[in-house]
Amino acid sequence: MNIYKIKNTSEKTESKKQEKQEVTVNTGTLEAVQAISQCLFEIEIQAHIIHLQQPNKSGWQHAALGEFYSALGDLNDDLVEKSYCKTGLLVNYSNIEIVNNVSPLEYIKEEMETIEQHRANIAEGYIQQMVDNILEVFAKVIFQLEQVK
Known about the structure:
Blueprint: H1 9-21, H2 27-53, H3 60-82, H4 84-87, H5 104-119, H6 125-147
């Protein structure tokens, strides 16, 4: 004779909800994604300000910076949402520091290095790939600022 425990439907549903809410967090990835996301928010705003401070609004530099900061928001959103299953919610954002009259090329190169350093702490290949896609946008704008005139 077998004895079975029968759960009602609401117990099964609640149990499944709890299982789905549990996220295995990789702290190295969490800290890296949090730092990269913070950087991207700051860079997006700073690059927009640099873009607006360009004296020649019809110039190549103005256009390159506009394309650059416009891409960062969606890339950041993708990074945060798609890495959620490894990081959980990112809740440790801090104030953004903005500086006036920044050299765009130097600033973007420095921030690219910062993101590359944080990328090294990410274990998951698909999250590394998202960061690599972000770095491609940095590489493109650096090329445009150095070579296109």
